[in-house]
């Protein structure tokens, strides 16, 4: 890419961001980043993962968490090179090609639509803890309510997400402290049996073998999906050069506390054999402790987590559709903003598609979660792959002096990026082996074919319109 192209690209990007309000402050970005990693994958999906891997799930989260940190630092390097809204699609478009940007934008949009279905599904399951309601009914109500919540300014969205995340963080820290108290003081029904020996005494640390642990990787990686959401907020952050690096650098301790720490505490207080798929391990742990009130509180918290994630999904989909439309890779109607800077049409379109999740709950209430999790995982990981490939190519160009160096370089790159790519490849192989997750690998080529045909149609109608330099 020549210097004139870079200048043209950056100028076009400034135009593309017109209309957005930089209303997200430092504390909001921090909590969005923290809350993005705490959702359904941890609160609900971990139940199935524990039953498959036992205590070794802790190791799976730790290793996968290291890979996530590599991905986030790669994203951070790109963001400090050029903080833009619709970042993953933009970087893929610049460093790989217009078609890569097209695929990434639409796939990341699809990821959040499918994730929205996942989170609504989980929220509907949580409601059955208190009420005997059909899952599809709860899913419908939540989808409508969250759509309404997204018709607000970005500043108010950030404030809502701040408090949603605060509830999740406070709850997990509180649960860790309660478990620590049980282990040291011995109170509650689990006090007499609680012991860190549960981590290796009930069949060993790898009760299902290393193969069983590897088979949980797609569930583990799903739990980390949405950590990259801070990249989407770049175009609406008040001070992205300061807030985004700080948020990204919190990834290691977030994973250490909220995943590794929380699971060690739970599995020490209650044996892994007590958990089962489809039941939140947090709720099940409190039930085993004899703390019924605590279980009800945790169920409310995980309900909040699911709704928070879905709310973030609606936020993200509208922005991604607008970025595609601005690049002539989506309907022009998606470029329209309300006076408060909200991409109303794109958000509305996405919310309508999320209602498919209601139908899934009606048709297959017991299988809905697993069906959408597997497809969300493969589509979400595509964004990670594009981040890593874009960072590798950007670093090579910057080292050659063709582009300015980023102020937030990824340590160990590009080797860490190559390692992360290899790890993601292994997860995809594991998904192919797992019959429950294999459906996503069947759907991915179909989705890719649809995008390929759509891109060819766009290119035939407007050969130059899909290029980034033509953004208007």
TrEMBL record:
**Membrane-spanning residues where?**
31-50, 56-75, 95-115, 135-157, 169-190, 210-230, 251-270, 290-310, 342-362, 368-389, 410-433, 439-458
Q: Which UniProt keywords apply?
A: Amino-acid transport, Cell membrane, Membrane, Transmembrane, Transmembrane helix, Transport
Compartments annotated for it: namely: Cell membrane
Query: Main subcellular localization, coarse class?
Result: membrane
Q: Which residues form the Amino acid permease/ SLC12A domain?
A: 29-461
Q: How the protein sits in the membrane?
A: Multi-pass membrane protein
InterPro entries for the chain: AA-permease/SLC12A_dom, Amino_acid_permease_CS
Tell me the Gene3D superfamilies matching this sequence: Amino acid/polyamine transporter I
| Record protein name field | Amino acid permease
What species is given as this protein's source?
A: Streptomyces peucetius
User: What's the source species' lineage?
Assistant: Bacteria, Bacillati, Actinomycetota, Actinomycetes, Kitasatosporales
């Amino acid at each position: 890419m020549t210097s004139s192209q870079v200048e043209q690209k950056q100028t076009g990007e400034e135009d593309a961001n017109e209309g957005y309000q930089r209303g997200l402050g430092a504390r909001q970005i921090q909590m969005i980043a923290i809350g993005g990693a705490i959702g359904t994958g941890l609160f609900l999906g971990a139940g199935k993962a524990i039953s498959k891997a036992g205590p070794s799930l802790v190791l799976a989260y730790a290793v996968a968490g290291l890979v996530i940190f590599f991905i986030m630092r790669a994203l951070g390097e790109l963001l400090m090179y050029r903080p833009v809204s619709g970042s993953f699609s933009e970087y893929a478009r610049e460093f790989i090609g217009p078609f890569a940007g097209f695929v990434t934008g639409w796939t990341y949009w699809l990821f959040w639509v499918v994730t929205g279905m996942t989170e609504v599904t989980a929220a509907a399951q949580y409601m059955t803890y208190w009420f005997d309601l059909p899952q599809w009914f709860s899913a419908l109500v939540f989808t409508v309510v969250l759509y309404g919540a997204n018709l607000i300014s970005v500043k108010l969205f950030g404030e809502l997400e701040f408090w949603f995340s605060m509830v999740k963080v406070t709850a997990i820290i509180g649960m860790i402290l309660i478990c620590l108290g049980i282990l040291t003081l011995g109170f509650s029904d689990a006090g007499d049996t609680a012991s860190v020996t549960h981590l290796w005494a009930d069949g060993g640390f790898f009760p299902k073998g290393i193969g069983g642990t590897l088979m949980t990787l797609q569930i583990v990686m799903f739990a980390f999906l949405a950590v990259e959401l801070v990249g989407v907020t770049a175009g609406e952050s008040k001070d992205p050069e300061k807030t985004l690096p700080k948020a990204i650098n919190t990834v290691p301790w977030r994973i250490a506390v909220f995943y590794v720490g929380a699971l060690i505490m739970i599995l020490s207080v209650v044996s892994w054999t007590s958990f089962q798929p489809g039941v939140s391990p947090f709720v099940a742990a409190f039930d085993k402790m004899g703390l019924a009130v605590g279980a009800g509180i945790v169920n409310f918290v995980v309900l909040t987590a699911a709704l928070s994630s879905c709310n973030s999904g609606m936020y993200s989909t509208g922005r991604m559709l607008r970025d595609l439309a601005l690049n002539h890779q989506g309907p022009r109607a998606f470029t329209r903003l309300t006076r408060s800077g909200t991409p109303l049409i794109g958000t509305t379109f996405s919310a309508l598609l999320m209602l498919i999740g209601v139908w899934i709950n009606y048709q297959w209430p017991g299988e809905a979660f697993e069906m959408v999790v597997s497809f969300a995982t493969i589509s979400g990981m595509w964004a990670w792959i594009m981040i890593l490939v874009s960072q590798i190519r950007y670093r090579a160009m910057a080292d050659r002096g063709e582009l300015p160096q980023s102020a937030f370089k990824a340590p160990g790159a590009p080797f860490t990026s190559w390692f992360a790519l290899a790890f993601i490849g292994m997860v995809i192989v594991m998904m192919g082996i797992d019959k429950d997750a294999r459906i996503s690998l069947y759907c991915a080529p179909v989705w890719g074919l649809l995008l390929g045909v759509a891109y060819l149609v766009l290119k035939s109608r407007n050969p130059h319109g899909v290029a980034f330099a033509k953004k208007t």
